[in-house]
TrEMBL record:
InterPro entries: Cell_wall_metabolism_enzyme, Dup_hybrid_motif, G5_dom, M23ase_b-sheet_dom
PANTHER family reported in the protein's UniProt record: MUREIN HYDROLASE ACTIVATOR ENVC, PEPTIDASE-RELATED
Residue ranges of domain G5 in the record: 167-236
Protein name: G5 domain-containing protein
Keyword check for Transmembrane helix: yes
Domain M23ase beta-sheet core: 266-361
Keywords from the UniProt entry: Membrane, Signal, Transmembrane, Transmembrane helix
Transmembrane segments: 12-30
GO molecular function, one term: metalloendopeptidase activity
C-alpha cells in the first residue's frame, strides 16, 4: 500500500472539508450580520452597534456558531391572535417598532411629537421565543409598517391609542341681552351688535385609530374678550297713544263692512274684500294661539296673541299656513282669504282686541 498517498488524500479531503465549513460559516455570517444588524438600525446598546461579533465575544459562542453553520437564529415571533405575523431578534426591539408606528401615526394625523402624552398598541399582540431561519428576520420598519397597515384593516383587533395635548384658537360668540325700553313702541327695536371674542383652548384628546374618542378642556386663556349684543325692545303701547301700528292684513282690497252696529247686531271687526286664496298677513309680531275651524260664525279662524294683552283675529279663511305655538313676525303670510263660516262672499274678517275687548282697528292700521 501507498501509505504516503493515502495520507496525502486524507489531508486533501480534510482541507476541502475545512474549506467548505469556512465557506458556509462565512456565507451564513454575512447573511446573519445583514439580517440581524438591519433591525437594529435605530437601537443603541451602551453606545455600541449590536452585531454578530458582539454576540460571539460577549455571549454564547456556540449559539452564534450554530447561526453561522445552520443559518438559524434565536429570536422572537410576533404573534397576533395565535397567528405569526413577523419576526424580530430581541424582545425589547418591540419598543423601537412601537416608536416607528407612533411616528407614522402622528405624521398622518398632524400631531407634534412633543404634544404626545402616551401611546399604546392595543390588541392581542405578544412575542414568542423561537429559533428560525435568519432570512425570516424583518427590519423594524417592515414590522412597524405591517402593524400600522393592520390597524387600518383590522380595527377590531388592533387599535392605536394616542393621548395628546391639542391647542386651538376658538371664537367666542357674543352673548345677547334684551333690554326693555319705554323709549320705543311695541314692535320697535334697536340692536347694538357685539364683537366676537377669542380664546386659546387647551384640550387633552384621545384618539383611537385616528378617531377622537375623548376630548377634555384642561385650560383656557382669553385672547380677546367678547362684547355682548344688546337688543333694545320697545314696551310703549302705541294703542294707548292712538297711533297707527298695525300692518294691513291684506295686499290691497277695500273695506266692505266697518266696525260697529250692523244688521241688528254688533260687528266686532272690519271686512276686507278679496279673492279666494289671496294672502293674509299678520298685523303685528306675536304667537299663534288658535288655528282651526270656528263654528261661531268665523269659519276657519286664526288668532294671534301680541304683547300688552292684545290679540288679532283673521276669519273666514280658505286655508291655514301656521299652527298653534308658532312665533310670527309682522307681515308674515299666515293664511288665505276664503268664504267659510257665516260669509256672503270671499273676504277677510279682521279684529283687534285689547284686554279681550274688541276695538275699532281702522285707525290703527298703517295706511
Amino acid at each position: 500500500m501507498d501509505k504516503k498517498g493515502d495520507s496525502i488524500r486524507l489531508v486533501e479531503k480534510f482541507t476541502v472539508s475545512i474549506f467548505i465549513i469556512i465557506l458556509v460559516v462565512n456565507i451564513n455570517l454575512i447573511k446573519a450580520n445583514a439580517k440581524i444588524n438591519e433591525p437594529f438600525s435605530n437601537m443603541n446598546l451602551n453606545n455600541k452597534t449590536y452585531t454578530i461579533s458582539n454576540r460571539i465575544s460577549n455571549n454564547n459562542i456556540i449559539d452564534n456558531l450554530l447561526v453561522a453553520l445552520t443559518g438559524k437564529v434565536n429570536g422572537y415571533e410576533l404573534v397576533l391572535e395565535d397567528r405569526v405575523v413577523g419576526y424580530t431578534s430581541l424582545e425589547n426591539n418591540m419598543n423601537n417598532i412601537k416608536d416607528l408606528v407612533l411616528q407614522k401615526y402622528i405624521n398622518e394625523i398632524n400631531i407634534r411629537q412633543d404634544a404626545v402624552l402616551s401611546f399604546e398598541i392595543e390588541g392581542d399582540i405578544k412575542l414568542k421565543e423561537d429559533r428560525f431561519d435568519v432570512s425570516l428576520l424583518q427590519t423594524n420598519k417592515e414590522l412597524s409598517d405591517y402593524i400600522y397597515d393592520l390597524s387600518k384593516e383590522d380595527k377590531n383587533n388592533i387599535k392605536l391609542s394616542l393621548k395628546c395635548i391639542d391647542e386651538e384658537i376658538v371664537k367666542v360668540q357674543p352673548s345677547t341681552t334684551i333690554i326693555p325700553t319705554e323709549d320705543m313702541y311695541l314692535g320697535e327695536s334697536k340692536v347694538e351688535y357685539g364683537e366676537v371674542g377669542l380664546k386659546n383652548q387647551v384640550r387633552e384628546v384621545t384618539y383611537k385609530n385616528k378617531e377622537i374618542t375623548e376630548s377634555n378642556i384642561i385650560r383656557e386663556e382669553i385672547i380677546k374678550k367678547e362684547v355682548g349684543k344688546k337688543i333694545y325692545r320697545g314696551t310703549k303701547n302705541p294703542y294707548d297713544y292712538g297711533m297707527a301700528f298695525l300692518k294691513s292684513p291684506t295686499r290691497g282690497g277695500y273695506m266692505t263692512s266697518g266696525y260697529g252696529e250692523r244688521w241688528n247686531s254688533f260687528h266686532k271687526g272690519i271686512d276686507i274684500a278679496g279673492n279666494i286664496g289671496d294672502d293674509v298677513l299678520v298685523a303685528m309680531d306675536g304667537e299663534v294661539i288658535y288655528s282651526q275651524y270656528n263654528d261661531g260664525g268665523y269659519g276657519n279662524l286664526i288668532i294671534v296673541k301680541h304683547e300688552d294683552n292684545m290679540n288679532t283675529y283673521y276669519g273666514h279663511l280658505d286655508d291655514f299656513y301656521v299652527k298653534v305655538g308658532e312665533k310670527v313676525k309682522k307681515g308674515d303670510i299666515i293664511g288665505a282669504i276664503g268664504n267659510t263660516g257665516f260669509s256672503t262672499g270671499p273676504h277677510l274678517h279682521f279684529e283687534l282686541r285689547v284686554d279681550d275687548e274688541p276695538v275699532d282697528p281702522t285707525n290703527y292700521i298703517v295706511q
